[in-house]
Amino acid sequence: MFKFRIDNTDHIIDVNRGNVAYEYDQVNIVCPMYSKGTREDDIETFIIYNVSKEEYDTCRVTNAMTARTIAVCDKPYLNRYYTVTFRPFTPQPGGLEFRPGQDYYFISLSNTPSQSPGRCNSHHMKVVFKVCCKRSSHLRSNSVLGEGSE
């Protein structure tokens, strides 16, 4: 059985906290892999989306125009993973960009209509990534640390 591996029950992960300039956290999304001969009913396939807070709360994609596909796990016999890098720019046109100070909501939905919304509800396969830090608050905390140190 596949589950998000995080330590807190709020399903919140802080990223880019304490990083130096141009250092960005990454997350690997690993698709479940099955051996040949596994019963079809035991195979999980799903799609992970970046969605709005409301869609995250309800485990449903209600606006296909704004939901972004992050990973498609639909090849159960192949070893597949996707790497997400939390940077504010991307070298690829149409790539993902993660702005400091923003929250990003990911949910996992079955790509089999009979299982929708699938594991998002039943196994809480959803997560919030909180991208640290707003530039102004990061600079302010550094300048406060520097005051009175002479």
From TrEMBL:
Top-level taxon: Eukaryota
Protein name as catalogued: Ephrin RBD domain-containing protein
Family to which the UniProt record says this protein belongs: Belongs to the ephrin family.
One GO MF term: ephrin receptor binding
Keywords per UniProt: Disulfide bond, Glycoprotein, Membrane, Signal
Subcellular location, principal: membrane
Keyword Zinc-finger on entry: no
Record has Disulfide bond as a keyword: yes
Span of the signal peptide: none
Cellular compartment(s): Membrane
UniProt source species: Medioppia subpectinata
Residue ranges of domain Ephrin RBD in the record: 1-131
GO cellular component, one term: plasma membrane
A GO biological-process term: ephrin receptor signaling pathway
PROSITE patterns found in the cross-reference section: EPHRIN_RBD_2 (PS51551)
